[in-house]
């Protein structure tokens, strides 16, 4: 008797649970991709909006959790949470730390930045591409919520290309502009001048 082959799905997803927060009431679902677990945080029935607000937020433990001011990640995340709580929408918390070089290598890159390299130079010196993120899970979330039109909260043109690659129409790109500080001016300059961010 031949054994039946079983195929492991590329993505597993959790049930949907409530996530009350200081910004308002959200729902939350986890998408598991291999060993990585990404989050979808959203307002109830947001997918019924013709063109809901969506942010693809790349994980930044140092900024999002510990309040590092070497970057603008914490401020962007919390600004997006406020906007989405007010208007309805979705945040995909994309867990690819340090542009997908991992936390250990991100801190090694920080060390090189302390010695004068910028973010791109540090990643390359460690043997990585300037940006190693992949976005398959984003397409899975869009499909899961039947999203065909969105208002995208981003400064990053690469994320515009990602969304359009999933045949989702961007009806508006909403910038998330954060005031610089002395610790992140160089970081933001590299984003603008070398990565094309709209800052």
From TrEMBL:
Task: List residues binding Zn(2+).
Answer: 60, 71, 73
**Nucleotide-binding among the record's keywords?**
yes
User: Per the entry, which co-factors are needed?
Assistant: Zn(2+)
Function description: Catalyzes the conversion of GTP to 2,5-diamino-6-ribosylamino-4(3H)-pyrimidinone 5'-phosphate (DARP), formate and pyrophosphate.
For this protein, the Enzyme Commission number is: 3.5.4.25
Could you say which residues bind GTP here? 55-59, 76, 97-99, 119, 154, 159
- Can you name this protein? GTP cyclohydrolase-2
Q: Which GO terms describe its cellular component?
A: cytosol
Q: Which residues form the GTP cyclohydrolase II domain?
A: 16-175
Q: Which domain of life is it from?
A: Bacteria
Query: Which family does the record claim for this protein?
Result: Belongs to the GTP cyclohydrolase II family.
The processes (GO biological process) annotated in the record are: riboflavin biosynthetic process
Q: List keywords of the entry alphabetically.
A: GTP-binding, Hydrolase, Metal-binding, Nucleotide-binding, Riboflavin biosynthesis, Zinc
| Tagged with keyword DNA-binding | no
Recorded source organism is Sulfuricurvum kujiense (strain ATCC BAA-921 / DSM 16994 / JCM 11577 / YK-1)
């Amino acid at each position: 008797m031949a054994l039946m082959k079983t195929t492991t799905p590329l993505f597993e997803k959790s049930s949907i649970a409530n996530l009350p927060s200081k910004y308002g009431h959200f729902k939350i679902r986890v998408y598991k991709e291999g060993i990585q677990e990404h989050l979808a945080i959203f307002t109830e029935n947001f997918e019924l909006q013709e063109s809901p607000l969506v942010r693809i937020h790349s994980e930044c433990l140092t900024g999002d959790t510990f309040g590092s001011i070497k970057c603008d990640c914490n401020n962007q995340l919390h600004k997006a949470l406020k906007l989405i709580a007010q208007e309805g929408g979705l945040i995909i918390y994309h867990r690819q730390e340090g542009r997908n070089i991992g936390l250990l290598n991100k801190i090694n890159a920080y060390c090189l930045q302390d010695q004068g390299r910028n973010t791109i130079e540090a990643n390359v010196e460690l043997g990585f591409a300037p940006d190693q993120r992949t976005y398959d899970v984003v397409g899975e979330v869009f499909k899961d919520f039947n999203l065909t039109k969105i208002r995208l909260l981003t400064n990053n043109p690469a994320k515009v290309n990602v969304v359009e690659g999933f045949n989702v129409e961007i009806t508006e790109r909403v910038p998330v502009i954060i005031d610089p500080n002395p610790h992140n001016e160089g970081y933001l300059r590299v984003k603008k001048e070398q990565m094309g961010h709209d800052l």
